[in-house]
């Protein structure tokens, strides 16, 4: 995981989480967002780049 403007990136084991809410809570703590990632009105979103380079919000795909 990488928060632009911070060094270094960090990795997480996705098998340790039961869904996006748990992952977002962990990332909020890991990158010291102080609850901003959890608060959906804050303007912060967790996104990923797919294999075509398109950025998508993580909740756009079902948790597997």
What does this structure look like?
The chain has one helix at residues 20-30, and strands at residues 47-49, 55-57. Strand 1 and strand 2 (55-57) form a beta hairpin. It starts with 19 loop residues before the first helix and ends in a 7-residue tail after the last strand. With 64 residues, it is of the alpha+beta class. It is 17% helix and 9% strand. The longest helix is centred in the middle third of the chain and has 11 residues, at 20-30. The chain has one domain. It is globular and about 30 Å long. A two-stranded antiparallel ribbon has the order 1-2.
N-to-C span: 18 Å
The average pLDDT score comes to 84
The overall strand count is: 2
The number of domains? 1
Relative helix content: 10-25%
Topology:
Layout: H1 20-30, E1 47-49, E2 55-57
Antiparallel strand pairs: 1-2
Observed structural traits:
single chain, 64 residues, alpha+beta, 1 helix
Provide a quick synopsis of the model.
With 64 residues, the protein is of the alpha+beta class. The protein has one helix and two strands.
